[in-house]
Amino acid sequence: MSRRAAQAEIAALLDSHPQAALLQAEALLRESPGSPPVELLACQALRRLGNPQAAQARLSLLARDHPRVPAVIWELAQAASEAGDALRAIAALEDLTRQQPAVAGGWFLLARELRKVGRAGPAWRADLSGVHAASRDPELLNAAVAMNDGRFQDAEAMVRARLAEDPDDPPANRLLGEIRWRQGDMTEALALVERAVWVAPGFDLARDFLVRLLIQTNRLPEALEHAETLARSPIQSPSHDLLRASVLVRLGAQEEARMIYERLLAEHPGQPQIWQNLGHVLKTLGKQSEAVRAYRQAVTHQPTMGEAWWSLANLKTVKLGADDVAAMDAALTSLAPQADERREDVFHLHFSLGKALEDARDYPASFRHYDLGNRLRRTMVQHDAAAFSAEVSAAANTFTAEFLMDMGPGGCAAPDPIFIVGLPRSGSTLVEQILASHSQVEGTMELPDMMVIASRLQSRVDQGEFPDFRTMIASLTPADRTRLGEEYIERTRVHRQSGRPLFIDKMPNNWQHVGLIRLILPNAKIVDARRHPLGCCFSAWKQHFARGQVFSYDLGDVGSYYRDYVALMTAYDQAAPGAVHRVIYEQMVADTADEVDRLLRALGLPFEAACLEFYNNDRAVRTASSEQVRQPIFTDGVEHWKHYAPSLGPLIEALGPAVDAYPSPPADWRAWLSRDVDAQSNK
Question: In residue terms, where are the TPR repeats (predicted)?
Answer without folding.
Answer: 272-305
